[in-house]
């Protein structure tokens, strides 16, 4: 009888992993540096070396139902990591089968944003919901879409790339994709920083606490700190970001009519500063049948735990 | 043993209905005027009067598996028609149960665009596909989204309103919804006409065959006729419409990663004039993992039959 699962979250910098019981308690966790490993086989060897003691301590592989992995560009159908821009391993990596072989355990893999949605459904504020969308506002903008209680994968496993949808045609260039005006260019931490630089440049005569920061220190976090002190430009940055994000969310609602949209990630630390303009803009851009229906909420999962929990939920599912 | 079904398509002007066998052959059909009936009960009485002889001729109600209805703002979950702007019957109409009671047959109802998608899946070019989107480019812009072989309904039955997604924030006002810059404001027949009027006004010195038409006769059809004669402005109208439509389609692809997008409706009569700029724009706005993957095709169903077939497919399904 399986008593626990392993959740692994592979990020561009860190890989976090943990032992998770059926109730969503993380019994043990550790991490290793992802990009220190030029070769994926070396990474898996190191992962095995660090993770096996945790598995043994929890009761051994026989009590483990399997390993769930969230990874950038992870494909649920194939178990591959395909052309992940933030990882050093190039091309198509049959990651799930490599890990399964190394550990002798069943492995399920999906992209990190879909794993986050699984975590919300099993352990977070989407418990009991069949239709919702999670939007991760972090370094990038990720998304996981749940329809009829299942992650939307599409015909090839790549559905749910909402951060790349275009919300300002001909707008800001996304250096990673070469596409102009995508949501990620504005509503990510990187996008907020860029908006800050633009607004400061466009308003040279407006005083702002943001001008005291060095270019390196000017982040979405510093924008937040200035905004709560009443800084005009910092507040405008959140207004602008929320306006755009709300428009994008309205489009998503008119696509799949979810019960809720759950926001997650660094930018949500700004609380009402980002929530209020986002909600206002979303409602303004919805047609009548969708107005005042969709719950727009922040995730309640601890950011440190959410990735491991989400990955682990893949196995219980 | 059921031998046939009834398909009913309720439009703002006409209601078409027909007897359909399992192979998608329409054995008999007729129509009545929708908006001639101020009261929905009178409409159903007239429908019964005209439809029962067809049912009797086909073998009687005992051989009929049921009635499928496509209607504006039709809700599959409730069987209601809810606040349909183009119909005279106001508020929430329990249409499916009213028809079921009148005919003594099971009734399934959905919105007209979803019915069109069902028809494509059962009888049209989406046979065998599990993930696709149909876009109807008619007086308005309708859409039906199929995921894992099922119509996407969302938590309340209203999913798939892609014509109302915003593609030009702050752009052209949609008089029906009050929202600016929605796809329907540009890619519908009405939108094409408006683009024509704008381009003619903006380029007073450019000769155009379109200037020979009266305001009443200037339609998407006349734009097509001028475009194939090489008219510069008429061709620009299709370029512009395709550019916008392609952007919107790219956004839809990045949401649900369909195998195909099927275009249907009056505007598709323009053939390559609309298809080429649309495809080019869609591909330009997709991130790498989606490029050159999605089939963009025209429906092969006859427009006259498609609505009845689509509605009938609801029952077989």
- Output the CATH class name of the largest domain in chain A: Alpha Beta
Order of helices and strands of chain A: EEEHEEEHEHEEEHHHHEHEH
Would you tell me the overall average pLDDT of chain A?
A: 94
Number of helices of chain A: 9
Strand content of chain A: 15-25%
What is the CATH T-level topology of the largest domain in chain A?
Nucleotidyltransferase, domain 5
Widest sheet of chain A: strand order?
3-2-1-4-7
**Which secondary-structure class do the elements of chain A indicate?**
alpha/beta
Biggest interface, CB < 8 A: A-B, 45 and 45 residues
Helix share bin of chain A: 25-40%
Named at the architecture level, the CATH assignment of the largest domain in chain A is 2-Layer Sandwich
Choose one word for the global shape of chain A.
globular
- Structurally, the number of domains of chain A stands at 2
Rg of chain A, Å, rounded: 20 Å
In short:
The structure is a homodimer of 317-residue chains. By secondary structure, chain A is α/β, with parallel strands linked by helices. Chain A has nine helices and twelve strands.
Structural commentary:
Two copies of one chain form a homodimer. With 317 residues, chain A is α/β, with parallel strands linked by helices. Chain A folds into two domains: 4-121 and 304-316, Nucleotidyltransferase, domain 5; 128-299, Nucleotidyltransferase, domain 5. The first copy, chain A, is built from nine helices and twelve strands. Chain A has helices at 40-57, 95-103, 112-123, 184-187, 189-202, 220-228, 232-256, 272-284, 303-316, and strands spanning 4-10, 14-21, 26-33, 64-71, 81-82, 92-93, 107-111, 132-137, 141-147, 150-151, 260-264, 295-298. In chain A, the strands form three sheets. The first copy, chain A, has a five-stranded mixed β-sheet. In chain A, helix 8 (272-284) links the parallel strand 11 and strand 12 (295-298). The longest helix of chain A has 25 residues, at 232-256. The mean pLDDT of chain A is 94. The interface between A and B is large, with 45 and 45 residues.
């Amino acid at each position: 009888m399986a008593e626990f699962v392993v959740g692994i979250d592979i990020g561009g910098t860190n890989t976090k992993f943990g032992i998770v019981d059926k109730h969503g308690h993380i019994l043990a966790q550790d991490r290793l540096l992802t990009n220190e490993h030029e070769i994926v086989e070396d990474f898996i060897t190191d992962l095995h070396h660090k993770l096996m003691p945790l598995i043994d301590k929890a009761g051994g592989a026989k009590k483990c139902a399997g390993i769930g992995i969230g990874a950038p560009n992870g494909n649920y159908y194939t178990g591959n990591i395909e052309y992940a821009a933030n990882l050093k391993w190039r091309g198509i990596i049959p990651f799930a089968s490599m890990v399964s072989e190394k550990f002798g355990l069943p492995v399920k893999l999906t992209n990190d944003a879909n794993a986050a949605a699984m975590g919300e459904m099993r352990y977070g504020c989407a418990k009991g919901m069949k239709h919702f969308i999670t939007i991760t506002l972090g370094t990038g903008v990720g998304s996981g879409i749940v329809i009829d209680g299942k992650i939307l994968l599409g015909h090839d496993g790549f559905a749910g790339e909402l951060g790349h949808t275009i919300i300002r045609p001909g707008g800001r260039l996304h250096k990673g994709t070469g596409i102009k005006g995508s949501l990620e260019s504005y509503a990510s931490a990187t996008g907020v920083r860029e908006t800050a630089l633009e607004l400061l440049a466009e308003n040279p005569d407006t005083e702002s606490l943001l001008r005291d920061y060095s270019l390196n220190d000017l982040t979405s976090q510093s924008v937040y700190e200035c905004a709560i002190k009443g800084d005009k430009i910092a507040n405008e940055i959140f207004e602008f970001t929320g306006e755009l994000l709300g428009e994008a969310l309205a489009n998503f609602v008119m696509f799949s009519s979810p019960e809720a949209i759950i926001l997650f990630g660094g930018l949500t630390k700004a609380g009402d500063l980002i929530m209020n303009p986002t909600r206002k803009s979303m409602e303004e851009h919805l047609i009548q049948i969708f107005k005042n229906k969709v719950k727009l909420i922040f995730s309640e999962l601890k950011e440190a735990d959410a990735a491991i929990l989400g990955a682990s939920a893949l196995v219980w599912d």
